[in-house]
């Protein structure tokens, strides 16, 4: 969300605050103008953060093309100079972590933002709405991921540190105060070791390299997962989610709920559940993580929307659950579902998923884009304002889409060549096209080219008990120089 990613968001939430859904800013990974020499940047992750001997460890290498399109070829994985194997790079869906709801990573790892800015979510030191991208103060390089909430944003650095800015009425900035921040500040206790971040409406969660989940911000509906559910409780610094001190491989945050994928593919969710968005077969709020019914294994990715949730299975199918007023569950009805159901027409081939307040988009392995749900502003992309209860192919995007990001009521994609196009609601400049005009058809963000990320992975169970320093090496290709990344990993008996 990172919905909220928007993908995937103060004491009491101010009633006068505008809905984050309508004003959410789109976060995209955008590259600066091409330079003479194209470098690359490789980051290695091992899932889960620590493993038992004999169990498979998934090694994931993300290679960023800095100014030269998508990196291609293979990545070699090793430990102590001993080869473990190799994986082939693919750009389709690999850049999801760089896309949120209205900020952009430049080709050198800096951040630019645009859109609604009353509380400083653009990060330029002002409170003026920005219909075109502007540089975020103090973040000129070294950033690998971005996520935006209702009225705030957070960034993850190469060093594994988290910084946030914008509204802090619920402590969502994580600096121990409730003072709004117009420029980025460090999140207390998260100066290293974080591998992923997710922003909800008024809360955030972080995933550490050890596979633990830490959350902060508003805890009024149990969305921090720490066993507390009190409307007046805010956590001004990160706290651990109950039972999630290890074994987590990915996270997401919705409006007022959060979810995680565990080693082995099980899904767990917590927080608000009045529309069944936790998927446990009830509508009872949960202040501690609970298992999603029917998803005990085989979940590859999960994405929380406003009051619904969707998952991609290991078979590349999509299942959704929760509020279905606009057809966002995708089963051809508008009946709310408290357990997962299959999304019509998406039984295979899906490699990435993004969720907005009431709509979703799925990216297939051939680069085709399919969207469904709420469509008041044309955010589904079919050139109409008719809600869609089943996925529709987005005209002009049947091939070549590399990454997707959804705001509350808008959508954006990066396509071949790194072109960025957005459509839907643009009341506060969230499409980044320099106007405040809503768009039924995609409009490019002028002057920007998206940073393209490729990913390679492999499984290994050959690591012995003890501590290891793993390495991923990209040898370079015709457009990029070589780069490598390392990651510490522990194997326990």
UniProtKB/TrEMBL annotation:
InterPro entries: RCC1/BLIP-II (IPR009091), Reg_chr_condens (IPR000408), Ub_ligase/GEF_domain (IPR051210). Keywords: Repeat, Signal. Residues 1-36 form the signal peptide. Gene3D superfamilies: Regulator of chromosome condensation 1/beta-lactamase-inhibitor protein II. It comes from the Bacteria. Pfam families: RCC1, RCC1_2. This is Chromosome condensation regulator RCC1. It comes from Methylosinus trichosporium (strain ATCC 35070 / NCIMB 11131 / UNIQEM 75 / OB3b).
């Amino acid at each position: 969300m990172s919905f909220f990613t928007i993908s995937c968001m103060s004491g009491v939430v101010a009633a006068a605050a505008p809905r984050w859904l309508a004003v959410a800013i789109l976060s995209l990974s955008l590259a600066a103008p091409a330079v003479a020499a194209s470098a690359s940047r490789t980051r290695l992750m091992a899932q889960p953060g620590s493993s038992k001997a004999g169990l498979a460890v998934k090694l994931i290498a993300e290679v960023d093309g800095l100014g030269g399109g998508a990196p291609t070829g293979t990545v070699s994985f090793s430990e102590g100079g001993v080869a473990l194997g190799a994986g082939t790079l693919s750009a389709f869906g690999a850049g999801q972590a760089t896309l949120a709801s209205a900020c952009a990573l430049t080709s050198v790892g800096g951040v630019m933002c645009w859109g609604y800015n009353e509380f400083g979510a653009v990060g330029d030191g002002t409170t003026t709405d920005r219909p075109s991208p502007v540089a975020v103060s103090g973040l000129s390089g070294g950033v690998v991921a971005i996520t935006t909430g209702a009225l705030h944003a957070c960034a993850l650095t190469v060093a594994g540190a988290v910084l946030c800015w914008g509204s802090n009425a619920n402590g969502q900035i994580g600096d121990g105060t409730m003072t709004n921040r117009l420029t980025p500040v460090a999140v207390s206790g998260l100066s290293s070791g974080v591998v992923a971040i997710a922003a909800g409406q008024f809360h955030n969660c972080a995933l550490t390299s050890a596979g633990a989940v830490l959350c902060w911000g508003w805890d009024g509906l149990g969305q921090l997962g720490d066993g507390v559910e009190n409307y007046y409780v805010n956590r001004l610094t990160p706290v651990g989610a109950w039972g999630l001190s290890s074994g987590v491989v990915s996270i997401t945050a919705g409006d007022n709920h959060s979810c995680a994928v565990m080693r082995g593919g099980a899904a767990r969710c917590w927080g608000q559940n009045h529309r069944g968005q936790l998927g446990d077969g009830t509508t009872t709020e949960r202040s501690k993580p609970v298992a999603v019914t029917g998803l005990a294994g085989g979940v590859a990715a999960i994405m929380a929307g406003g009051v619904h949730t969707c998952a991609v299975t290991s078979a590349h199918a999509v299942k959704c659950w929760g509020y279905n007023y606009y057809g966002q569950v995708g089963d051809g009805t508008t009946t709310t579902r408290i357990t997962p159901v299959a999304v019509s027409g998406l039984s295979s081939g899906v490699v990435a998923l993004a969720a907005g307040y009431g709509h979703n988009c799925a990216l297939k392995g051939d680069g085709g884009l399919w969207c469904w749900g709420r469509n008041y502003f044309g955010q589904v992309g079919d050139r109409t304002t008719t809600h869609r209860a089943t996925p529709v192919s987005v005209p002009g995007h049947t091939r070549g889409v590399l990454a997707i990001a959804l705001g509350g009521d808008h959508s954006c994609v990066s396509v071949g060549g790194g072109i960025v196009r957005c459509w839907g609601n643009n009341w506060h400049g969230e499409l980044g096209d320099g106007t405040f005009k809503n768009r039924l058809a995609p409009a490019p963000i002028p002057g920007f080219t998206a940073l393209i990320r490729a990913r390679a992975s492999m499984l290994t169970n050959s690591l012995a008990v003890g501590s290891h320093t793993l390495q991923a090496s990209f040898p370079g290709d015709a457009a990029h120089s070589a780069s490598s990344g390392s990651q510490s990993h522990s194997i326990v008996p």
